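Dear U.,

Please find below the material for section 3 of the report. The protein was modelled together with flavin-adenine dinucleotide; I have listed the sequence and SMILES used, followed by the predicted complex structure.
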Amino acid sequence: MADVLAFAEQRDGSLLGVAREAVWVAARLAEGLGGTAHALVLGAGDLADAAAELGRFGASSVLVGQHTALGEYNPDAYAPIVAEQVRSGNFGTVVFPATTTGKDLAPRVAALLDVPLATDVTGVEVEGGAIRIVRPVYSGKAFAELDIDASPTLLSIRPNVFQAEEGEGTATIASFEPAVDESSWTQRVVERKASGEGALDVAEATIIVSGGRGMKDPENWNVLEDLRDAIGDGVALGASRAVVDAGWRPHGEQVGQTGKTVAPKLYFALGISGAIQHLAGMRTSQTIVAVNKDPDAPIFNVADYGIVGDLFEVVPRLAEEIRALKARS
Amino acid sequence: MDVIVCVKRVPDTETRIKPSAAGTEIDSSGVKYILSPYDEFAVEAALRTVEAAGSGEVTLVTLGDAAGSETLRSGLAMGADKAILLEGSSTMDGLATAKALVAEIESADAQLVLLGVKAADDDQQQVGPMVGTLLGRACVTGVTSFTVTEDSVRCHREVEGGVEVVEASLPAVLTITKGTYEPRYASLKGIMAAKRKPMETKPAADVAARIAVRSLTSPPARAAGKIVGEGPDAVPELVRLLREEANAL
Ligand SMILES: Cc1cc2nc3c(=O)[nH]c(=O)nc-3n(C[C@H](O)[C@H](O)[C@H](O)COP(=O)(O)OP(=O)(O)OC[C@H]3O[C@@H](n4cnc5c(N)ncnc54)[C@H](O)[C@@H]3O)c2cc1C
Ligand SMILES: Nc1ncnc2c1ncn2[C@@H]1O[C@H](COP(=O)(O)O)[C@@H](O)[C@H]1O
């Protein structure tokens, strides 16, 4: 029961960044518990190449379940397969990513296995043979350390919080053919619409450029798009609720209590006052930059770096300086 | 069309959260409690569903201590028909909560069970899919809008990078997120009427929690930030700090 399983989520045949983080966390835990770490990948296409990479993040084996019906996530298909793998592999700990899919899947697996689950964990380590779990509660206004009295121990980790380090390891690939009974499905996806041409989702970005009511008009978003493009890859646009409610931006971009919780490496709050419900969604970001013309705006209380000023002057200059920096390096 | 909505009493989102002296729960003195915001969306969705169907009842269920009756009254004031208070403890073990709710929901003949996508206190985001799984019913999470047909429900849900339309069979369990269901305000008439609506109190099914909070602490204070300067002239220094000090660019 010292072995640890990580659910390595893929989309369109590529592993998500958080899949590596989950495997890396699983490997750390296995080390502490005296077991080995394993990864589980489910999908429709050829996943062996993608899976092999997980060895470098600490998986000693990768279980690859391939079936034409697993191309897109469907809980009725996925949950029983994952539960069965946990059971048959006799894993004592299971790590899920706290993505939209992970948050949908993990509770179902927990219910099937009849064990509790800790969601959106930001701290986990082995201490004296036991797993110590810390997770934010009250939208990050407090942190709870948990005692879980059940085996296996199930947890999901918040993306971007754990910095997965790449090593030299290699994993054996163990392919299996999962049982899928489509006739028992209670639900299916009938349509999928991508928001914006392949725009990166805030929940997955390592850098977020967020705008609030200080942007004045939806037309002005070109200023933020330009900053995003200047920084390069891995950048998503975010928004405060005020601009989402005004219909300026889609709800998928909303950060905060009733939007998404994010923890990027770098968060730009531009023309955002910093209401408690907005902070709820972004206060665990590693570095926060605020630009606001009001020196007393509460966002400055959480920002690592602030500029007091008109964002329409500051942000274009910022994009310019970052472009210059990239050109030099 | 009968609908059950699971609602939770949580501290107002504006509230300052302070750990209690014992350090395992919050200091509730001076804390104002509300119906969890996502659960309000769920109540609104339920009311609109019954209104559209032209018949049926909305029943609210909460698990918690006696004060939960206040939360239930505010949902009744919005327009729900009746309420059930399952007296017991609501813990961070979402599976224990789900089991207690299921013990009540199971026998009722509701085609739809709605929950919030997450409760605004523990933020576990798990009770809904656990309830769905325990009941063996279709369960769609993160629903922003839905329409009910004869024997199915068509849901829009938000996923990373887009929107999905999911068709699920009835009876179903849905978790509701912010979308089209802007909650209505309770009218004065609604508040008066709520006082006379049926509310049943009974002991919750006895399910032991297997997650306990060992300690609750305030987040480490973010080191006081610095104001780099004023206006665009401060930008070069900001970029230098982001690169050299924060290692973020
Ligand atoms: C239950 C509940 C849930 C909520 N959930 C969320 C949530 O998920 N996310 C969220 O964001 N909010 C949420 N809110 C709303 C929140 O309370 C605030 O109303 C909202 O965050 C304000 O958005 P804002 O900062 O864009 O707008 P404002 O508060 O209006 O701030 C605009 C800021 O822009 C600055 N500004 C104006 N012009 C310029 C300029 N030219 N240059 C620089 N700065 C300028 C102003 O000084 C001001 O600080 C919630 C509220 C409730 C009650
Ligand atoms: N004690 C409770 N009583 C009733 N419903 C609850 C309770 N706890 C959670 N729920 C429901 O489950 C949803 C998700 O909660 P959670 O998984 O704890 O984030 C909430 O929005 C409620 O609809």
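For the text of the report, you could mention the following: The first strand of chain A starts at residue 4 and ends at 7.

Regards,
Y.
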